[in-house]
Specification:
20% strand; alpha/beta; globular; ten-stranded mixed β-sheet; 11 helices; 323 residues
Amino acid sequence: MKHTRRTLLAGAAALALGFTALASQAADAWPTRPIRFVVPFSAGGANDLLARAAAEGASKVLGQTIIVDNKPGAGAILGTDVVAKSQPDGYTFLISAAGVISNSMIRKVPYKDSDLTPVAMIGLAPSVIIVPANSPYKDLKDFVAKSKSGAGLHFGTAGNGSTPHFVEGLLTSKYGAKLDLVPYKSGSESVNAVLGNQIDATSEASIVVIPYLKAGKLKALATTWTERISAWPDLPTAVEQGFGDIKIAHWAGVHAPSGTPQDILDKMAAAVDHAMKDPQTIERLRGMGIEPIGGTRASFTRFVDEERTRLGEVVKATGMRED
């Protein structure tokens, strides 16, 4: 009996070693077929453009095609769920964003945060607080001060949990601004509402608003990222204007299904970082108002953890919940 048990244990150990060896060989050979980047948003936005820039550059490094697959719906939940339930074999990745991090905080989602693991930061489009071109407000301080006077200012968002919603939440919870929230179905709708003088302000990605700013159709009060926008360097940050807690942007990163081999995650992170360091890519993206970043798996993991904590504090302070 003891001999049989030892034989079974030895067989199990050998089998485990065999599986480990096969997994290692698969990781070494990866990728042997096209890879898919699932974008949980429509084509044409900052997230999609960053995904395509990363896919183009990383595919050259990896020697394999990377297909960008747009799966918008339910505030990024649809596309996120596809990846969360995919095989962790290194052939399906999620192009993540702030909304992906915050969704589980404000609504029910069909997956767990632990179903996905951070891989790499791609870049970001700094958020810009905008008002109509004929608005009397000269900067963010002026706008917030006016809101506190009971002026009844209306601030547009792209729905609950959107980046503009968090900008509004930071202004109200951290600095006492008094704003009437006006939710729209998308950021483009809220921008159009500002253009038409239907609301007093909103915030949206730099890539969306810079053409309007250059044409004189909108006025910018601040960028809400930590640094000025390369394509619009004259615009001060909210931090520079005394709003040190307002640090948020429309960012894009890469997540993978949990359980994806570490060697594959490392290879993808290195490929994305290389893509974002390409001089031509940097020039092209910055010209559109997008800041390429890249970096390591560790740096992106820290960013995601910090973002989750920060956004969670805003959710708790504002009572932000699903519509």
